[in-house]
Amino acid sequence: MEIVEVGPRDGLQNEKRVLPTSVKVGYVSRAIAAGLRRIEVAAFARPDRVPQMADAEEVLRSVPRRPGVRYVALVLNGRGLDRALALEAARPDEINYVVVASDEFSRRNQGMSTASSLGAFRAVAERARDAGLFVTLTVAAAFGCPFTGSVPVSRVRDIVADAGPLDEICLADTIGAGVPGQVTELAAAMRTVAPVAPLRAHFHNTRNTGYANAIAAVTSGFVALDASLGGIGGCPFAPAATGNIATEDLAYLLNRSALKTGVDVTAAAAAGTWIGSELGLAPVPAQLGRAGDFPLAS
Q1: How many domains does the chain have?
Q2: What pTM value is reported for the model?
């Protein structure tokens, strides 16, 4: 089961302390040392709105390039893609484009309706693929909107159906409102409109359902799960959106469920504790750094 490390982007963007580039690169290096191989490292967002990501270009120029390690950058529009492509040799390997499922949240987050955002995605995706980049469509607030409440499964299904060709679909519980039954229902809906696209999920643990949702995703055919070392992060445009599910806790759950992640949970927990100290968080939301690993039966 693949874990996509999103701490350097989704984790840091909601924390009050803005870290220097060198610390962000150290965070990425620790993620690699813990066995993570697909890492979202930056967002090409407006620096005045997301100051934590203002050094996106410098981060991508500075992170270590290792065989088998893929870097992801969040792109919200054509200007963001222009910034990514301008990096040339330091480009990300993938872009992650977010379309918000509810119009109200989309306008607050991206200044446009869901339909307008989806139209922009199609144009950006075509250009990105022509440049050789892997493209993920993330449907944010797929499990609920902080402003308008429940989001119908049909709404998410229709967004994906209208998106055009997809390398990967990521369904995001941006505010941690979802429960396992929704995961199962959304997975079934995706298969009616995108039967072969890989499914990825992004869960927050706002209401303590994130890890239950992760197991539901595994059993529903998702092949990748987002998480952040330390369990840090959230969405700066969603009220009360707390951290992502923690990489170290998720890896412990999956590893002990006979699902290979390639993640060393002890190293991951140390990285989570370290980034918490850099952010002034004591303790971080993750549990494994306090409890420690527990050995498998021999």
Answers
A1: 1
A2: 0.96
